[in-house]
Structures are given as structure tokens and as C-alpha cells.
Amino acid sequence: MPRNAGKSAPTAFVNARLVDPESRYDGPGALVVAEGVIADVARRPGFEALSPDVRVIDCNGAMLAPGLIDLRVKTGEPGSETKETLESAARAAAGGGVTSIVVQPDTDPTVDEPSVVDFILRRARDVELVHVHVAGAATKGLAGERMAEIGLMREAGAVYFTDADRPIVDSKVMRRILSYASGFGAIISHRPADPYLSAGAAATEGEFAGRMGLPAAPVVAERIMLERDMALAELTGAQLLVDQITCADALATLRRAKDRGLKVAATASINHLSFNELDIGDYRTFCKLTPPLRAEDDRQALIEALADGLVDIVVSAHAPAPAEDKRLPYDEAAPGAVGLETLLPGLLTLHHEERAPLVDLIRAVTLAPAQLLGLQAGRLAAGAPADLVLCDIDAPLVVDAARLMSKSKNSPFDGRRLQGQVLLTMVDGRVIHKAAQ
Amino acid sequence: MQGAADIEDLIRQRAFPFPHKHLLSVAGLNRLEATALLDLGDAFVGLNRQRDKKSALLRGRTLVNLFFENSTRTQSSFELAGKRLGADVVNMSPRTSSIAKGETLLDTAVTLNAMQPDLLVVRHASSGAGNLLSQKVDCSVINAGDGQHEHPTQALLDALSMRRAFGRVEGLTVAICGDVLHSRVARSNVGLLQLLGARVRLVGPRTLMPAGADRWGVEVFHDMRAGLAGVDVVMMLRLQLERMQGALVPSMREYFRFYGLDREKLSRAAPHVRVMHPGPMNRGVEIDSEIADDLDVSLIQNQVEMGVAVRMAVLASLAARLDNA
């Protein structure tokens, strides 16, 4: 339901490198947008005859792909607007080529009832930039005890349900949530972490954390909870989204679950695909994340799992934290990293390193999340929403956290040399971001 | 017999200046630098045994002791070291300052920095706190213990104690025993002893051994008798009662039975073995009083004396390279 559809003149993108995950096409092409949707797609550099009122954008070989859909974004609204507002997050998303975001329920107040879902959607409509979707809480107050109003929130527009960073410890509660949600076809997302093994941990147990004297949890903490979740998914037949899988050990569990035909999908964060625990270096708190960064072997396993499709979706895990929450001793600092503006360039690194075909990498941030949520976006086909990103994937980019559009600047990519500059972002046919020339 | 003037000559005539601005961990030191610190510490031992212990090496300098964790002995050791070198010493502890009112470590650092101190000695419960401070202040930062990370001056004083007892550190076999997991003393000692050419063993129950310790270039033992076999030095660690978050060992008596140092276990070591402990000791938990007080075996008293001397060496070396030196 594109709003403002038809307000802007039709636009033609010519001389593009079209990357369409649905058809797995990656090659020269052109595309016309009209009335907020993709009107025509051609697998040749241009169109023979375009009516004179069509605005033509010459892409000069830049990549034209569906706009990114980021399933895991935290803002500070409501409750912590100094960290990030829906507007600042939406601007950051637009700058990063992200056209849809799913905001997390761990705000203040918690998104655990339909009126809060409604509030956020209304605020997002006022901002009028990217599509904002809401993830509702799975339990009231994210306390892991009583079920939240999953059905009512779903009616209000919530796209999936999660307690965000808080594990649902009680297996009986988790079972009931999965069971109840499956009756509505609602998706439950859960981050696997055994709360007892992970209590107080700021790093991954191993030689590095041992030397640095950091409180650490073993990676099996992830596998243990994932094994439980897989068993409960099998018991209930529910659709489960594994939030931020990070390690080889848990990937083996995921593989077994998928082989058994369970309805599970898994996300990986761009951070865990890009960094390992050694990036913490001299106690860099920007690299303090939940789950914590893992060993290089785990990062490599995660990249391979993404390349072969075991991991379905890549998220930014955007978690703004202002300087006062980060400039603390490591174990006192807030975890999390902003990521909306570095998701695409970070992912493109895997393309430049030839770890996976570009079209498959793009799929993990477009079509795969769209299909999970039942969205029409995520593809370059006539009739699909005109949510697009135009990106010069070879352009050098030195990340400067100070220049990020997020209110918080906690980027582990700060100072990193990446490739990929977003030239233009379009939502429902409207240009919402254009790179400065 | 060395006077203050001789020591000043010693520093001036060094083949190379001490190159570091901060002392945050032993990991940044090379063997020459560590040896130079020990040599200077040795000289200060002589000075400290004289009636006039004063030197003017730090005259006009300000030393701030910033201790977020209580430590009477380390704080007074640094205080004495600073005063004997002629510095003005200020002790700050969280309960008497605004830190208790929610001021962050860095706010404190910025405030302190404005007072133009030259040397900042910091102890903090979080690993890496000294590293963080060093990025935000202009003065030299000395890590006096950060969480479970490092306590470099402790390792230096331990090395000096060993060197004076055996005439060398190279080639010694040192068993570090007990709660290695929570011990910054152990981490600094492993690094420094290896740098100086000693062989290091870690002895303790598996629940008190850090993951990956077997890859630190040490031998790990869970049987204390085997771990002590033939060693030259037994270094006992304090069982950090206040840090025991969970039941890492079943009981104190069981711990003493298997990992406490008594005569019987000590008899496995080399005949000339010397026993060390960073203090404060839990007598009867990790070490038998009889051993701790046996001056033929115990270096524990020497360690305290070496502490002041080595800290004087560290302070003097860092001050010599301050920008306004």
C-alpha cells in the first residue's frame, strides 16, 4: 500500500547492474518505477522508447537492488530518545540503503500490547522515510513469565514476537508461546543463550578472554539454548526465527533441525560476519556486543553457513549506545553496535572477498526477510514495491563514526576501509536518500 | 652502598631511556626494559635500607593514587615509593570522592587530569580500566591491578625477589598455584617470567584455571604434588574469597587438602625451594602458617620490601620520559 503513490513522476534507471535475488539475475539492466511500484524491468542497459516525462537516472553500472530489509533494529523511541529516535534511525537506514526496518520491543514502555505497536507505527508514518515494522514482545514486560498479547499485537501490525536480548528461560513458558503463536501463524524469534552460563559474561571464553581477564561464557551456552528451542519447535510445530546465530557449534544444531524439516530460519549479524574477538584488542567497547564476538573459526563457519544458505538472513543488529554508555571499563560498558549504515558495505566485503555470489548476499538482506514476513518487497519484478537501493559497490569507503546519521556513533566499523557507497535509496518510488556528489 | 646521587647517575647513564609512557601490563615490555627496571629496583633496595632514604628524582612531581578497590599494602607501597623519591602524593579512594555519586571513571580522569598530575596509579575492579584511563589523561598511568587482567608491578617485585634469592630468573622453574582464573598477579607473572627465561607451571583445580591457559606456553597441572615436583619457586595465589561468584570449589577444607601448601606437598619441590605469596594470605586456606613464617623458605617478607623498591624504579623510569622532564 504505497502512500504518496503517483505523486512523483515515473523514473527510469538505465545502465544499471541489476541484482535480483528472486530470479537470481545479476547483470546489465534497466528498470522503470511508476506510481510507487516497479513498472518494468529490462535485462538490457536501457529502454528503446521512454515517454518524455520520465525522469532518467543513468546508473553508470552501479548496482540496483531491492532495498534492504533489516529484521533487527533498536531505536530509543519510546523511552531513550537521546540514543536514537525513529526518525534518526530511519535516516540512518535510508543512508545505508535499508528501506524496511523491524524495531525491537525492548523500549520504555515495552512493546507488549497493541497500543504501543500502534504508537510506533503512527510515529513512523509521521517520519515518512523508510517502512517501519514492529516486533512485539513475546512475554509481558519482557519478563519471560506471562505471554504478551500476541494475537492483538499481530492485528495491530506486529510482524514477529521476541523478547529481544532477554532469553526466555522457562521452557514451559517458551513452549506455550511457541504453541500459542503457531495457532496464529505468528513467528517467534529467540536469541539462543543459556542464561546461567552467560550470566555476567562480556566475552567468549577462550584464550583471548582468559588473557585479557574478561568475564566470559563458553560458546556452548548458545548451542544448549538452541538445542532446547529446536526441540520445542519440533514439539509445537511453530515457526521459529533464530536470532543471531554466531558459532560453528550452534550451526551444527541448526543444520540438524533444518534437515529434520523444522520451520526454522536463522539470522546472523553483520558484526559477527565481520569481526572476531581479537577486534576487541585493547578493550574496545565498540566491539562489546551481545552475543559477544567469537573466535575466527566461528566467524569463518558463519560466513560459510551464509554462503550455503544455512543462515537465511543477515541483520544489522543496530543497537545505538551513546558515548556515556560506551566509554566505560569493558565489563561495565553497554553492549551493542549501530549498523544500519554499514550493513550493506559490510556485506559487500564478503562479495569482494569472493566468499559468496553477490546475488546470494543480497538475498539475505532482501528477499529472505521479505518472504519470512510475507512482504511483497525484496525483488525486482513488475508490480513489486519500488523500494530500491542504488550502490556503487566498488567505491572505497572509510567509515567515520562521527559522520554516521545515527544519533549514537558506536560503530565497530569506525576507521575500517570498506567498499560500497549508497548513491540513492528509494521507498515506494520516492527518493529518500541521495549521496552528496 | 649506594646513595641517591649514585642512583641518579644510574638512570642518566642508562644505555637507552625507558621508552614507555605508561605501565599497563607486562605484555608491552621487552627483556631489556624489564631487566633495566629490575636493576634500578635493586639499587633502590640499597637506598631504602639506609637511614636517609630520600631521593630528589621526583621532586616537584605529583603522584595520584586512585584506588577503586581497597588495598592497604599496594597503596602504601606506591605512596612510600613516591614520597621517597620526593613526589607529592595524593591518595584518592571512591568512598571519599564523587565517584560514589555516579561519576564515571572518565569524568574522574578528566577532573584529575586538570590538576596536572604527573603519575597516576590506578587500581580498578574492571579489566582494562587502566588502558581506558591512559587514553584520556596526559600523565603516565601505572596499572596497580585491573580486574582479572594484570598487576605488572607485582610481577616485577616477584621477579626481583627471585633474582635476589637465586641470583637469576632465567632457568628457574616456577609453579604458580591456586586461583589462576581470577588472578591478575598470575597473568602478569606468567608474562614476565617467560620474558625473563623462567619455566612456568600453573597448578590449580580446573574450575580455577582460565580457558586456554594451556596455550600460554605454560604447563598446567591439576595435581599439586605433580605440579610442585622439582620446582625452584612456589608462588601461592590468594583464594579470592570476595570474588567467588559461585561454588568453584566445594569447601575451604577440601581446597586446602588438595591445593593448600603444606610441608608434605612442598617436599616434592627442589631442596632449595622458596615460597612466595602476593598477600594478603588466607592462612590455613591456601598456605600453612608454618611455611609462611619459615624465613628459610618464605620470601614473603622480601616481596614486600622489593615492592617499594621496584615501584620506585617504575616511577623514576616513567617520570624520566615525561614530556616536561
Secondary-structure class of chain A: alpha/beta
Count of DSSP-assigned helices of chain A: 14
Mean pLDDT across every amino acid position of chain B: 91
Biggest interface pair, counts: A-B, 23 and 24 residues
Backbone structural class of chain B: alpha/beta
Helix share bin of chain A: 25-40%
Question: Low-confidence spans of chain A: pLDDT under 50, at least 5 residues?
Answer: none
Quaternary state of the chains: heterodimer
Question: What's the gyration radius of chain A in Å?
Answer: 21 Å
Description:
Chain A is α/β, with parallel strands linked by helices and 437 residues long. Chain A has 14 helices and 18 strands. Chain A has helices at residues 86-95, 114-127, 150-156, 171-184, 195-198, 207-212, 220-236, 248-259, 270-274, 296-307, 323-326, 343-352, 358-363, 367-373; strands at 11-20, 25-34, 37-42, 55-58, 63-66, 68-73, 98-103, 131-136, 158-162, 187-190, 203-204, 216-217, 239-242, 264-269, 313-315, 388-398, 417-427, 430-434. In chain A, strands 1, 2, 3, 4, 5, 16, 17 and 18 form an 8-stranded mixed beta sheet that branches. In chain A, strand 13, helix 8 (248-259) and strand 14 (264-269) form a beta-alpha-beta unit. In chain A, helix 2 (114-127) packs parallel to helix 3. Chain A is globular and about 65 Å long. Chain A starts with 10 loop residues before the first strand and ends with a strand. The model of chain A has no long low-confidence stretch (mean pLDDT 95). Chain B is of the alpha/beta class and 325 residues long. Chain B is 38% helix and 14% strand. Chain B is built from 12 helices and 9 strands. Chain B has a 5-stranded parallel beta sheet with strand order 7-6-5-8-9. A 4-stranded parallel beta sheet of chain B has the order 2-1-3-4. In chain B, helix 1 runs antiparallel to helix 2 and helix 6 (152-166) crosses helix 12. The longest helix of chain B has 21 residues, at 300-320. Chain B is globular and about 55 Å long. The chains are: A alpha/beta (437), B alpha/beta (325). The A-B interface holds A 200, 205-216, 218, 282-283, 324, 327-332 and B 104-106, 124, 126-129, 131-132, 146-150, 184, 187, 210-213, 215-216, 245.
